[in-house]
Here is the input.
Amino acid sequence: GNMIEKIFNTTKQANEVIYNVINQISYETENGESEGKYVTVVSWMSAKEVSLMLGKLVEIYSISGENSLITPQHILSIGDMLLNNLLSTVHKGAIEKTYIGFMAVCKVLLSSKIPNLQRLPREWISN
Here is the structure.
């Protein structure tokens, strides 16, 4: 479980940094600065990869057994991150990859035997 915790925490930190950069740069690059555009492109590429990684973490280490390496709290946190990313992203490619990660989380949750987790996708959609 320790390695999963490290991966989870590192990916969560990367997600926060990437979206902070994206939100700051998108305004600055409107003036046509090529350096800012490069950083923006790299940030969007990173955002896509982080979203896919979060979705894969949930797929691989699903919550369907007692020996699961990922906790329900991890899944809730990942789902919240991906949903926030979906709602704050304007880049089509990043939205597509974030959607794939988010759908992986929803699939695991909907097939969960834990009622509180099973109803999370419904709650996210209704909010």
Summary: The chain has six helices and no strands. The two ends are 32 Å apart (CA to CA).
